[in-house]
């Protein structure tokens, strides 16, 4: 069994999201039929099932909705990355995003705090991951 960390594998549906991250931008889908942003990437709009989803750039700014500090590895590949600060961020545009917090100590975390995106490049994997840190004032 390998202890190498797994990385996301973009699909045809999710590729615009991953491509935007490589450019330090965040693009998610917007549904005109429901007048709301949508995340995770999909083919049809939730609730309306309309085929009207379009990709739009968002700021990526948000609020820390919830978090947990994992003092034990969540899986063997993360045994050298402790503590792991796992979080859900509510984007200002609406949807929630599961992520990891960086550049912050666990005692500094507060539900409701403002956070900003951090683009973490992995050139050897040709992917950029989206993480979050407390927003600089």
From TrEMBL:
InterPro entries: ChsH2_C (IPR002878), NA-bd_OB-fold (IPR012340), Thioester_dehydratase-like (IPR052513). Residues 55-119 form the ChsH2 C-terminal OB-fold domain. SUPFAM superfamilies: Nucleic acid-binding proteins (SSF50249). Transmembrane segments: none annotated. Signal peptide: none annotated. It holds the Pfam family OB_ChsH2_C. This is OB-fold domain-containing protein. It comes from Rhodococcus globerulus.
